[in-house]
Design brief:
There is one protein chain. This protein has a domain of about 170 residues. The protein is built from 9 helices and 2 strands. With about 250 residues, it is mainly α. The longest helix is centred in the middle third of the chain and has 45 residues.
Amino acid sequence: MTPDNRSLNETKSLISGVASGILEKVWDVNWCLKAIYIGFFADIALIALTGNGLFNFTFQSETALANAGKIICALLAFMTFVSLAVPVIVHILNILIQLPPTYQEKSPDCVLPRALKKLALEEKSEFLLKLYIQHTQDVKERQSKKNDARSLLVGLAILIAADHLAGWLYHLPSLMTWLQSQLSWAATALPLLAIHFAVASTYQKDSRDNWIYYPPLAAQLRDAERAAQEQVHLARQRHRELQEATHSSHSSRY
């Protein structure tokens, strides 16, 4: 095989690998949202810096080199938006949106994390302590995933609105203005409405965060609670009998 043929085969293999990788990622919702995210930002940047949106963009190496400064500024703006602006906005939302605690019925075989931690320390059980630590890590991981999804969705909502505004201000066919011309107001309203409900869902509490599945301790706590209730019942009964006896003695005197 000649070097040219070998190089051609390597190029084909590389292109095939990239294409198959992209096709696999297409089914990943998180990856698709990020691709849409970048597409909207690129559309806004092209409209603001070149006067042409993503629809009318044609790549030419000479043009790219001539506008290298603008491209670098756009990349810096994107990094600032993703790494600084959106997290600050999400942090403000987290402060403003404080949902009241909701009652969540627990399974009979579940216990509070602090109860399991207390038992682990009392019995010096490495197994129970690992179970508690694993639960804490799972809670943090779920919260981190929710926060990442929230940041992505909030940033996407901002970019959708900004893309629509850029097309209207510059009188150019942006992605959103083109979609609106095809689908009327639904092109803007429906995505924003879907994002609203998706962001709201990230603020919902997961019942798994509040309880740990450990039947032995759950049974022990139920027995202790039942014994405490019986003691309270006996104490009340004795108090009632004492009051009745006192009342009877007073009545017999008179």
